[in-house]
Amino acid sequence: SEDVTVYTFYGLILIMVAYNFFLFFAFKDVSFFYFIFYSISAGINQMCIDGTISLISDNPYINNHLHIFSTALVVCFGILFFSRFLKVKEFFPFWNIALNVFLIANIFLSIYIWFGDISLTDNLANLSALLVNFFAVPLSIASIRKKYSPAWYYFFGYLFVLVTFALYMLKIYNIYPDVTINIMKYGFGIE
């Protein structure tokens, strides 16, 4: 059952990467490009969580740091994708500046991960992933209120990621340990 979930998830990631690759070239919309790298980062992140990454690399240093690095990349490419897709620069110029500052902080975090304390950077990456939700959800709702109909797709898709992320955080901090380690795969997959 868990193997089916894992392989289905990685199949979906590959399909979405290929699909968005074709959309990027067909429509010349950079948001598809950002979504490709968001999907790849999410896939690598999940490979680190479920141990699949050890099939590619058996170096514990790389595997441990890659998990945190991929978390930071999911946040970075998530910001780039949703700010472009939700037209944040056009609709909400102030929040666009705030997102750019947050993005730059995450870029520095993604570099610091390789040289800093692993426990500290893991907590900072998880905090960053949590904080990005305080941008993504309200901005998608605000875009909906501006009658921008594509924001509905983002809002409903991202709700699945948000719920499964919350459950995953409860698991890794031992608040609710009965959640499957693959919970985020369901959220990313449905998104």
Number of strands: 0
* Helix content range: over 70%
- Main beta-sheet strand count, sense and barrel state: none
Distance between the termini: 21 Å
Inertia-based shape: globular
Percentage of residues in DSSP E strands: under 5%
Strand and helix order: HHHHHHHH
List low-confidence stretches.
Answer: none
**What does the average pLDDT come to?**
93
Class computed from helices, strands and strand pairing: mainly alpha
Nearest-angstrom radius of gyration? 16 Å
The DSSP helix count reads 8
What does this structure look like?
This protein is mainly α and 191 residues long. It is built from eight helices and no strands. The protein has helices spanning 2-27, 30-50, 60-85, 88-91, 93-112, 118-145, 150-172, 183-190. Helix 3 packs antiparallel against helix 5 and helix 5 packs antiparallel against helix 6.
